[in-house]
Specification:
Blueprint lengths: L1 H17 L19 H17 L5 E6 L4 E6 L7 H15 L3 H10 L16 E6 L2 E9 L4 H13 L7
Antiparallel strand pairs: 1-2, 1-4, 3-4
Helix pairs in contact: 2-5
């Protein structure tokens, strides 16, 4: 009985492997993508914090890589316990929709249909995608300033710190 099961699987695999253009065929070239380095993420974080602190705001921030994993996360001194998670959700929203979380919130508010239910997203300003050219390589979310537009200004100041790397 085991031979009857084994033989068809063996032949099925040979057929799949030998098909031209199959997903198992050798690639013609390797894909390339830009990634957000730790050094770049730390530079963004420092510049965003510096901007918020200079403006008198105590904030937390999260920087995500292009796959949504945390690259840098900082809970600022004197911030509320919710600010760290909220900053992550703002960054995740910006990464997911490839636009600021403020733009997403505005689109959701003006839509006649309910927004998509994507766990981890939030309709609040303060999340900004990090783009290298047209490619989104990560996102930053800031939370804790008195108003999402102020959080977003700090996030944008952070990204501008490495603008030359993002060309």
């Amino acid at each position: 009985m085991s031979q009857l099961i084994f033989l068809p699987l063996k032949f099925a695999l040979v057929g799949v492997v030998s098909l031209p253009g199959s997903p198992l065929a050798p690639p013609q070239q390797l894909p390339t993508q830009k990634v957000l380095s730790v050094d770049a993420a730390l530079s963004i974080a420092h510049a965003a914090l510096d901007k918020c602190y200079a403006d008198g705001y105590r904030v937390s921030l999260t920087i995500l890589d292009n796959s949504g994993l945390t690259k840098v996360q900082v809970r600022g001194d004197g911030t509320g316990p919710h600010t760290l998670e909220h900053s992550r959700r703002k960054a995740y929203t910006a990464l997911t929709f490839k636009r600021t979380s403020a733009e997403t919130a505005k689109a959701w508010a003006s839509s006649p249909t309910p927004p998509p239910v994507i766990e981890g997203t939030v309709a609040a300003a303060g999340g900004v995608p990090i783009k290298a050219g047209d490619e989104v390589i990560g996102a930053i979310g800031v939370s804790g300033a008195p108003g999402g537009e102020k959080d977003e200004a700090c996030a944008a100041a952070g990204i501008s710190k490495i603008a030359d790397l993002l060309k």
